[in-house]
């Protein structure tokens, strides 16, 4: 498959942090994503009280929406600013604590306990730290991961989900020769080879 010049493209952690600092966050959706609403039944699969993972969560409004439905939400985000904005924009009290297993990482948890956001690199997480998940809402993570890190990302995600989990993935389709990304173009054939 032709991914154009994107194969070698790398966006650093510093660049992501700068996007948040500058307010250059066109990827953030204030109203929540229509595809999550459309396919919510597929994600939940008739189950309640799920543990739902938000990789590279930013300040996604869907986290509160799903928590309000009685699910337990866990996210990971490199930007502490994004995490703090999530809690303040939803007027949610929270506590902050270090994550002993990950140097420099913090975990922000709503005082209600049903939303836990890890502030660190996603690659520092493991199931021994965050547990396993019943569902994943991947709206902007796989398409934001550097192309060379996709296999590492997919392996981590597969390791973090329970056997009968649901994984809802949103990608974007366009000519990768005309846009350098992110969001990156991930052909369907690659999604199949990454996740099986």
TrEMBL record:
<comment type="similarity">
    <text>Belongs to the class I-like SAM-binding methyltransferase superfamily. TPMT family.</text>
</comment>
<feature type="binding site">
    <location>
        <position position="77"/>
    </location>
    <ligand>
        <name>S-adenosyl-L-methionine</name>
    </ligand>
</feature>
<feature type="binding site">
    <location>
        <begin position="16"/>
        <end position="27"/>
    </location>
    <ligand>
        <name>S-adenosyl-L-methionine</name>
    </ligand>
</feature>
<dbReference type="InterPro" id="IPR029063">
    <property type="entry name" value="SAM-dependent_MTases_sf"/>
</dbReference>
<dbReference type="InterPro" id="IPR025835">
    <property type="entry name" value="Thiopurine_S-MeTrfase"/>
</dbReference>
<keyword id="KW-0949">S-adenosyl-L-methionine</keyword>
<dbReference type="InterPro" id="IPR008854">
    <property type="entry name" value="TPMT"/>
</dbReference>
<keyword id="KW-0808">Transferase</keyword>
<feature type="binding site">
    <location>
        <position position="56"/>
    </location>
    <ligand>
        <name>S-adenosyl-L-methionine</name>
    </ligand>
</feature>
<keyword id="KW-0489">Methyltransferase</keyword>
<dbReference type="GO" id="GO:0008119">
    <property type="term" value="F:thiopurine S-methyltransferase activity"/>
</dbReference>
<feature type="binding site">
    <location>
        <position position="139"/>
    </location>
    <ligand>
        <name>S-adenosyl-L-methionine</name>
    </ligand>
</feature>
<dbReference type="GO" id="GO:0032259">
    <property type="term" value="P:methylation"/>
</dbReference>
<protein>
    <recommendedName>
        <fullName>thiopurine S-methyltransferase</fullName>
        <ecNumber>2.1.1.67</ecNumber>
    </recommendedName>
</protein>
<keyword id="KW-0963">Cytoplasm</keyword>
<dbReference type="GO" id="GO:0005737">
    <property type="term" value="C:cytoplasm"/>
</dbReference>
<dbReference type="Pfam" id="PF05724">
    <property type="entry name" value="TPMT"/>
</dbReference>
<feature type="binding site">
    <location>
        <begin position="121"/>
        <end position="122"/>
    </location>
    <ligand>
        <name>S-adenosyl-L-methionine</name>
    </ligand>
</feature>
């Amino acid at each position: 498959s032709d991914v154009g010049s994107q194969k070698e493209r790398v966006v650093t952690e510093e660049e992501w942090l700068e996007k948040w600092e500058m307010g250059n966050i066109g990827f953030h959706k204030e109203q929540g994503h229509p595809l999550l609403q459309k396919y919510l039944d597929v994600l939940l699969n008739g189950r309640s009280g799920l543990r739902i993972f938000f990789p590279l969560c930013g300040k996604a409004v869907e986290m509160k929406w799903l928590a309000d439905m009685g699910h337990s939400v866990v996210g990971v985000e490199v930007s502490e600013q994004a995490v703090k904005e999530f809690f303040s924009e939803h007027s949610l009290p929270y506590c902050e604590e270090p994550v002993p297993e990950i140097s420099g990482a913090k975990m922000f948890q709503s005082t209600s306990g049903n939303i836990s956001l890890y502030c660190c690199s996603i690659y520092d997480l493991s199931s021994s730290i965050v547990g396993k998940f019943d569902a994943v809402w991947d709206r902007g993570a796989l398409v934001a991961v550097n192309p060379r890190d996709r296999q590492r990302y997919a392996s981590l995600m597969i390791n973090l989900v329970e056997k009968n989990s649901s994984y809802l993935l949103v990608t974007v389709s366009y000519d990768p020769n005309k846009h350098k990304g992110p969001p990156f173009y991930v052909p369907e054939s690659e999604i199949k080879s990454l996740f099986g």
